[in-house]
Amino acid sequence: MKLLMKYLAVSIIFLSILTQGVLAANKYTTAELINIAGMQRMLSQKIAKSYFFYGKGVRPEKTRKQLMDSIALFDKNYHILLNNISDDNVKDMLVFVEMNKDELLPIAKKPFSKDNGLLMLDYSETLLEASNDIVKRIENTTNKKIDKIVNLSGRQRMLTQRIAKFYIAYQSGFKDVNTINQLKQSMQEFEQAHVVLANNKRKSKQITDELNKVAKLWNIVSKFYKDVQRGGLPVIVLSSTDKIMAAMNRITQMYVELGKK
């Protein structure tokens, strides 16, 4: 009987390791890794957004700092993921992300031009797609609903920066239909996800309060985003999207902590 119990215990541990698939030494929980990988999605958009705002001379000291800080945080998160994920496919994707980030970095340090802006848009889209793939692979290792909520909440951070990116890109000369469509689609996705988060029953009072604050601010400032073709209001767009992003970051962190209980 003791031998059987020992065998069962070893089997349970082995199966637990298999279900972790992508994860390495469990230094971070799945929710924490989803949060970190999800933050990379946001940073892919924030880097490009900050480049455009800085190029337009909007709050130059702030936007230049945002640009450099975002690149530094992207590097930090990259190494955390690289050291805590064992799946070879994810590691390959991480290497691809690093290569593209290294291509983007010299552009980020150059003065704004239409050509550099186009490259920045292209690289930010590639980084977003690759980073999102990494999030999905990590999420696929878990069946916990709270981990999926962490992903959804974290994605809202990215959408705020994506909205601001396309808004300021339009003002910087990229006045094509695709720019407008991407902005509007991002807004629609943000609103749909907010409804899901608001209706999710597993949340604390603090999360509910923060979501209500986001909804109130969104109702006010979303009109400015929709009016992209009229132009102007870059400072309002910059500050409001960053406020919503900061709130969604707090909410995501709270969901991560909620998953530990």
Name its key features.
mainly alpha; 9 helices
Protein architecture, described:
The chain is mainly α and 261 residues long. It has one domain. 82% of the residues lie in helices and 0% in strands. It is built from nine helices and no strands. It has helices spanning 2-20, 30-55, 60-84, 88-108, 114-139, 145-171, 177-199, 205-226, 234-258. Helix 7 (177-199) packs antiparallel against helix 8 and helix 8 (205-226) packs antiparallel against helix 9 (234-258). The protein is globular and about 45 Å long. Residues 1-21 have low confidence and may be disordered.
Low-confidence stretches: 1-21
> H/E order of the elements?
HHHHHHHHH
Task: State the domain count.
Answer: 1
Silhouette: globular
Strand content range = under 5%
User: Average pLDDT, to the nearest integer?
Assistant: 90
What's the end-to-end separation, in Å? Answer: 34 Å
The main sheet comes to: none
Which percent range fits the helix content? over 70%
Count every helix, treating DSSP H or I runs of 4 or more residues as helices.
9
What structural class do the secondary elements suggest?
mainly alpha
- How many beta-strand runs? 0
The gyration radius over C-alpha positions equals: 20 Å
Note the topology.
Layout: H1 2-20, H2 30-55, H3 60-84, H4 88-108, H5 114-139, H6 145-171, H7 177-199, H8 205-226, H9 234-258
Helix pairs in contact: 2-3, 2-5, 2-6, 2-9, 3-4, 4-5, 6-7, 6-9, 7-8, 8-9
